[in-house]
Amino acid sequence: MAQPVSGDSAGQQPNPGAGHGATTPEAPTRRGTELVMLAFAALLVTGALMLVEANQEQQLTARIVYYGLAYLALFAVAHVAVRRFAPYADPLILPCVALLNGLGLVMIYRLDLAYDERAIQTGRDIEDAVPKQIMWTALALVLFLVVLTVVKDHRTLTKYGYTFGLVGLGLLALPAVLPAEFSEVNGAKVWVRLGSLSIQPGEFAKILLMVFFASFLVAKRDLFMAAGRRVLGIDLPRARDLGPILVAWAVSIAVLVAEKDLGSSLLFFGIVLVMLYVATERAVWVVAGLTLFAGGAFVAWSLFDHVRTRVDVWLDPFADYEHGGFQIAQGLFGFATGGVGGTGLGAGRPDVVPYANSDFITAAIGEELGFIGLAALLLVYTVLAMRGMRSALAVRDTFGKLLGGGLSFALIMQVFVVVGGVTKLIPLTGITAPFMSAGGSSLLANYILVALLLRISDAARRPTSSGGSKPRVAPKTPIAEAHTVMVERPS
């Protein structure tokens, strides 16, 4: 049974001028900015496809026309939908996503050409990944449109916070209770496989649990600020107030560790820690969380062989080059080959790295586009996360601040975990790059994430009244005190 949670976000009235017919002088400018940026992204993607074809096939084939038209059609529909259902949303979010998704399609197509050539040489048949990735992109955009149309006000999600939390925990635990033949791939039990269809429910659980934590922290923020008992100099809330979030967090981490999903464990831990800090503005929670993380990492290294193996490969991938260290070593060789400027699209050998189109797609980009190309890619991710965080800071309700901040941080944290693992900054985790890696689960979940960010951004930028033209701005109060700011009721 869904339990409504108390708090400012649940009790406020919808934004004035929330109807889709409300317009201001800024709205056409936003539409024009987004359209120009989408056209620029399409131009870059089309040029990249032509470079790949020229370097690999030595000619331009009809396939790039089909892929280019499919890309343009998908994001043209997305642009129209965003301008229709979220007209005041940040105009840079969708173009950043389109560019990342398009460059991912380019690199997957480039690897398909290399795999096809190898299949011809070995006499084996191989299925191209690009058509399937375009299909997943279309499904993801359909889901994106559904979220935009169904969730007309992000604050309505607080009514289902506990329900989302229970469903999220169930999705996390589902692969763990299934037999290995239906859930295990490469040693990790994180999949649900039905014939040729594979889905990773943890990707969707991540978003559901973020909604739960945001709604719970809004309802219990004052109780988190009040001291229940002082332990080691830290004022802790009462056990009955802290209990639900600790139980959900502990169960989530335990399930992910049991499923050998180290990357998601790290990602989820960081998201909850940041949301707790944003809600309370108490740095002691960050210190306590990092201490718990260090202790948990040591215990996991002591108890689990797969964790110890990952750490050993991280410390010295060449010690077991033929087996555990082969993938990371080949990725490092690719970075070294690419250097500063890269070998050029289609002119490298990223296909020698296992899972180059999924887990190691950033290594493939680093080889063929070099340090400059990879830095530019990371800059696009940074702009996307910053625009999402900016919307979270500007929205009036605390729930929107927490959810928007959590979604934005989840995106940039995932990029850090991916690139950090590939570059040997941290142990390799197996998480895929958002919007770029081949695979459907991550793509579907991340488009849901973007739809929620756009909805929050639309609420933050929407005018304060249907007849005015002045957009809403962030209140000049700390995030933790923003719950005292009331939204003006429509007359």
TrEMBL record:
Keyword Membrane carried by entry: yes
GO cellular-component term (any): plasma membrane
NAD in keyword set: no
Primary site of residence: membrane
Parts of the chain that traverse the membrane: 35-52, 64-82, 134-151, 160-178, 198-219, 262-279, 284-304, 360-381, 402-423, 435-454
Domain of life: Bacteria
Topology term for the membrane: Multi-pass membrane protein
InterPro entries per UniProt: FtsW/RodA (IPR001182)
PANTHER family for this protein: CELL CYCLE PROTEIN, PEPTIDOGLYCAN GLYCOSYLTRANSFERASE RODA
Protein name: Cell elongation-specific peptidoglycan biosynthesis regulator RodA
Organism: Herbihabitans rhizosphaerae
Upper classification of the organism: Bacteria, Bacillati, Actinomycetota, Actinomycetes, Pseudonocardiales
